[in-house]
Amino acid sequence: MIAAVAKWGNSLALRIPTAFAREISVREGVSVDISVTNGVLLVRPVDDTPVYDLEALLCGITEENRHVEVATGESVGNEF
Questions:
Q1: 58: which DSSP letter?
Q2: pLDDT under 50 in the chain at which residues?
Q3: pTM of the prediction?
Q4: Where would one find the signal peptide in this protein (predicted)?
Q5: Are 74 and 55 in contact (CB under 8 A)?
């Protein structure tokens, strides 16, 4: 498939055909890695979903950033 390169501000833009985007699971807002290898432009989707580690998060709790209990009133349903 032949595609045209367009100007977008000070950069260049290339539209990705829907069939290609679907094949590599890319949609608007998804991060991609762009590189050049042997004169070939490569575009690869990147999974930038944050990965949290409970142990590391718990280590970040200190007396200074720990919140106190908040009173929300008497029970009104089947709370226990």
A1: H
A2: none
A3: 0.53
A4: none
A5: no
